Amino acid sequence: MSMNYEDININGTSSAKCPNCGASIFFNEKLGKLVCAMCGGLFDPESMKSAGRIENRDTDAAGEAEDNKQEFVCDSCGAAVVTDYNTAATFCAFCGSPTLINRRLSKCFRPDKLIPFKISKEEAIENYLKWAKTQKNVPKKFTSKSVLSKITGYYIPFWLIDADCISEVSGTGQKYQGENIENFQIDRTLVYNVRRVPFDGCRKIPNTLMEAIEPFEYKEIKDYNDMYLPGFFAQRYDLSALDMMDIIKIRLDSYAEGIVKHFSAKEYDSFKAVGVHGSYSDNYKQIYALMPVWFLNIEYEGSTYGIAVNGQTGKASGSLPISRKKVYSHAIGGSALDILKYLGLTLLISFLADAAVMFLTGGSASDWFYYGMLGVLWLVLSLTGLLIIVPIVKKKFSDSRFYGSVTIDKAPNIEEYIDLKNQFKMETRDTFIYMSRKIDDDNLKKFAGSSLSERFLNNIFK
Description:
By secondary structure, the protein is α+β, with helices and mostly antiparallel strands. It contains 8 helices and 17 strands. The chain has helices at residues 121-133, 145-148, 207-212, 245-259, 324-361, 367-397, 438-449, 452-460, and strands at residues 26-28, 33-35, 41-43, 50-53, 69-74, 80-84, 100-104, 113-114, 152-177, 180-200, 222-223, 233-235, 270-300, 303-310, 316-318, 424-428, 431-437. The strands form 2 sheets. Strands 5, 6, 7, 8, 9, 10, 11, 12, 13, 14, 15, 16 and 17 form a 13-stranded mixed beta sheet that branches. A hairpin with a 5-residue loop joins strand 14 (303-310) and strand 15 (316-318). Helix 5 (324-361) packs antiparallel against helix 6. The radius of gyration is 33 Å and the shape is flat. The relative contact order is 0.15.
């Protein structure tokens, strides 16, 4: 999150102060709000009215409540995980380093909520393998049982965000009045609330990977309790919700496009939504929660790829590479098969042609003549066929899959995080544009959907 730390002047003061705690507040251009980095308060720049609160958490020193927990810090990548004293870490699942430093908690660790693990390690591996088998040309390392045995159960820190959203939707509508049509310009404001949209606060895990294993089933969410920690590791957040406000706003704004398909105007006989020409979000709230994830980073040809399985639902995904050996193997095998098919076809054509000549000449020539003609004809057809086979082989070896990677699943649509029945409101500002006749409108649609030649003929033979 970037802030403008230049002094701002509101109500004649040299620097705006937070109405909650009195600390200086600064304008965040991503949100369009004033932000207090001390208490997390958000405020409207013009009215200074509260626009929600996004605060940092677990910044105080660890107290007696954390005496039953320990922390492991990777000496290689710096990843820090929290667990109980009976659970030991032997390697870092983020970089694979076996060098871990054990220490007492330096800061408090008190999330608001938690979803317990339901999927065992064995089930997680099985679900991942089922998913991986649906992907093509994945390297063997990513399905190796010895590699996958290192997959680790983590409680990943998530910020569950609530927000009030507004989308401005435009479109066109028609009302049929006998042979006449009333045409309207649609202009409406959709007001809705999104609840518990998850954003992972772990810098070492890509947001796209965590989005790929969504959604989590919030009906099983519980108040945080240390008793769920034994046997698993809990990742500390290193990205606060304030740090992620630009990402949060981008995702919430993207839901504005998704809301259009749920938008209907039943008072019109014909309706078409053009799109969203403005979206806003306000009144932010957060819940600091831990979500169960089986996770492992795998090194391959100098790069790191992450795989993950939802520890509650079992949904698996990953950012996987493509095996060059497998692509080459498929290309060579496919090309060899194409060549054999073509050679067989040319041999059949040559044999039929030779048999036809033998029949027409009554077999008067010597056998060597027919054998020689068969060989020459087959050789000519085979060499000519190289003009066809070579481009096919070249295309197989330049397959785009050779250069790409497995496509990771996308985040769930807005349906997962909005109550369309109880939290959806609509303000209407539709305006009448003009009156048209139904027959003219039908002809216009027919004309618009016809080809240029059809329009030309229609004009001649009308």
